[in-house]
Amino acid sequence: MSGGPPPDLLDRVFLARVVEPGDEKAGRWVREAGAGEVAARLREGGEPLPGVGATRWAGLLARARKAEPERDLALAREAGVRFVCPGGPEWPSQLDDLGDARPLGLWVRGRPSLRMWALRSVAVVGARACTEYGAHTAVTLAAGLAEHGWVVVSGGAYGVDGAAHRGALGAGGATVAVLACGVDRPYPRGHTELINRIAEQGLVIGELPPGDHPTPSRFVLRNRVIAALTRGTVVVEAAHRSGSLVTARAAQRLGRHTMGVPGPVTSALSAGVHELLRGEALLVTDAAEVVELVGAMGQLAPERRGPVLPRDLLPAATRRVLAALPARRAAVPEEVARGAQTTEDDAVARLYELRALGYVERHGDGWKLTRQAMVSLRGGRPGS
Q: Has this prediction a pTM greater than 0.85?
């Protein structure tokens, strides 16, 4: 880092080894007394810090005795990893919205600036055991976001996370993996190649020091970082108890945009998404709709509409006359006029106009739809 390391870097690296991610009590200690004072109290092993019981204090002291911040930094350097502190030039200030649950610091693997990339980023998360539909949607969505110049952030896991990372990389875009373990040890193992590729082309970040392993609670706490780091979170497939819903709800608490991609109503893997959509989350179907929400004013998604059919080009009054004709028999002008809510003379004039266009034909004193009109009115092929 330019200008030398922050004065409390070693203390924060020490605390990152001693304190679990998201520990709000420890965060309050650091906010009120400073990282140096908290680290000193833990090293000395004297009176417990405020609000901690004897058992937990003993556990923290046991961890503190084994902590070697200089060694952690040396191991990180060997792996091409740096430690980013709050308030430093690379620190994304939006993480401060987490309050006392803010990370003590982040281990960062990769060349780009985390702060700059996080300014224009979107989280794409979802089920690990996703369907083919979920994987396809995540790849397409992430590729579209990358093409729009947005950084795709996810958790590096199997399923939707991995698909989102691959979609962004495949489009030549930027992606960030937020891990629940040391960034020098990719997890899951089956994604080692993917996470190494992300580190080469993007960023791999995490709160845990080198070599640390993931646990269920660390996965849950990791999700708050994904939510806080990004402008919004998109959930692609999630069951009712999915961890990606934790990310979405954290995003809602932080005032970030929360979005969901709908799936089949019969799919349990979309039930959690549909629950979100019944609340404050917004429905999205592609990258343009996501960008409309998280982007700058005026970045609107294209208007969605079906194909323009020949009858759409008719004047409104003429369309009403056409619609007033029965489907399978002829009708006299008086009947057509009543259905179209117009005069008989006006109905006759518009029927002749429709005959010239091939929509109706004369049958004695009545008028009947042609085969062409039947197809047009159905919007498909004859018999559809």
A: no
